[in-house]
Amino acid sequence: MPAKAKSARRPRTSSRPAEPSAFTARRPRAFLQGFANGLNVIRSFGPQTSAMTLSEVAKLNGLTRAAARRILLTMQELGYVEAHGRTFQLRPKVLDLGYAYLSSISWIGIAQPIVEDIVAKTRMPCNGSVLDNQDIIYVLRVSTRVEIRADLAISIGRRFPAYLTAMGRTLLSGLPPQDFEDYLASATIAPLTRRTVSNPAALRKVIASDRAQGWSFVNQEHATGICSIGVPLRDARARTFAALGIGWVVTDESPEKTRDRVLPVLLAAATAINRLLRVHGSVSGP
What we know:
Elements: H1 33-44, E1 52-53, H2 54-61, H3 65-78, E2 81-84, E3 87-90, H4 95-102, H5 106-122, E4 126-132, E5 135-142, E6 159-161, H6 166-173, H7 177-186, H8 200-213, E7 216-219, E8 226-234, E9 240-249, H9 255-280
Antiparallel strand pairs: 1-3, 2-3, 4-5, 4-9, 5-6, 7-8, 8-9
Helix pairs in contact: 1-3, 2-3, 5-9, 6-8
């Protein structure tokens, strides 16, 4: 029997402490809780929490004031946070953590010029993402000169629930069957628009269809007026490791017509990237 969807809570699109593992709450015996707490403190800073007091950091992360104080003082000593009176803020050095990951992904350098060509041909922004627990996270983006709508002004590192986006569904369609079932059992699946596929059984059918056709199309399920398509990037073993996607604002042209016009460009680009990756050997990351 398909798992029932959880509801009554809006899916997260901002940074917050991550799940302890891919789709379960199990932790190995060697798990360092103190180290995990420090990483969670870094992730708890965001647009609405750019500066926090010690008490706010402790409350948001489920820590005692003493534990939060030790973490903040350690990070301050290492240069990752700074104090201004009673509040703490992240310092630019935090970007080193993200850059270490991005610089280790060999496929981004190969894909970048091809993605730029996609943008030149379609005049639409193009993105690359990977699956991280229940979300996708943007690791590559080439923008147009002007972003038409704030919904599309996306930066590297941005997260969205996987089930809501075309790239997310593309990545979910590439999961081994049991991993996908684990995702369905643990994900918070809730509608954001009247078009959102929020029933696990229905989502399972959509993902199966996307897997068979080799691409995904989402029509105003994440936000009214926003559509997207996604295609997979695959390694030498035909495993999906990332997705390319294009999002656009609905205009006088029907979403389906825009999809049919842009999809061949995106598919051809993905084929070219996959071919180059095979020539260069293995894929580094995600």
